[in-house]
Amino acid sequence: MFPDIGAVFGSYTYLATEVVFGSVALWLLLRADALSRAGKTIIALYPLGYVWDWYTLTIGVFSIPLRTGIEVAGIPIEEHLFIIVVPALVIGVHENLHRTTERAETGQ
To answer: What's the domain count of the chain?
Structure first.
């Protein structure tokens, strides 16, 4: 159904997906003029996400075969990006939805 990008990117597959979805998140945040506010939220959430990720990887809840193998502070570099990209996407979608709703309510 979906193309096997793992065959193309190999050990950089996870990193490539983080870059793609991170770009979408950045675009959404810029579009909503919410980059600064989102950054503060992501910084506040990051330690919790890191501990959660480190723990689940350590006990073997999941493994990541298509990754670079570069680890920082006990987790793959891609997971550090994941901890940033996921809330950035959520906040970006949230901010754009509310921005659209506010425009409709004010007639702009």
So the answer is: 1
15-24, 27-36, 92-101: least confidently modelled range = 92-101
The rounded Cα 93 to chain-centroid distance in angstroms is 12
Residue range(s) defining the domain that contains residue 23: 6-106
Task: Give 67's DSSP letter.
Answer: S
For 23, counting Cβ atoms within 10 Å of its Cβ (0-12 exposed, 13-18 middle, 19+ buried), the class is exposed
**Which two structure tokens, joined as six digits, stand for 65?**
């075969």
Please check whether residue 55 lies inside any domain of the structure: yes
Is 1 inside any structural domain?
A: no
Give the tens place of pLDDT for each residue, 8-22.
Answer: 999 999 999 999 999
C-alpha torsion sign, points 13, 14, 19, 22: positive
- Does the CA dihedral 61-71-79-38 come out positive or negative? positive
